[in-house]
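Dear colleagues,

As part of the handover before I leave the project, I'm documenting each prediction I ran so the next person doesn't have to rerun anything. This entry is a single chain, and its sequence is reproduced below.
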Amino acid sequence: MTEETFYEYPGEEEENDTPESIGCWIVGIVTLVVFGILVIIGLFLPPFNLGERIFRDSYAILDAQNNA
């Protein structure tokens, strides 16, 4: 009695260096977006505090007593 295989051997598979899916691009883009968000958040926290440097009142507030 001869044993029969339930599958056929496909032969040697070729190695493919190029990715066939978009998965690596998705991971890369998500990584860059998260990195960018963290950098932006970091710029608005001390010691840099870019928000305070940009939106600070750089003019003198005048009133009736301090009228220069």
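Residues 23-55 form one domain. Residues 32 and 38 are 10 Å apart (CA to CA).

All the best with the project,
I.
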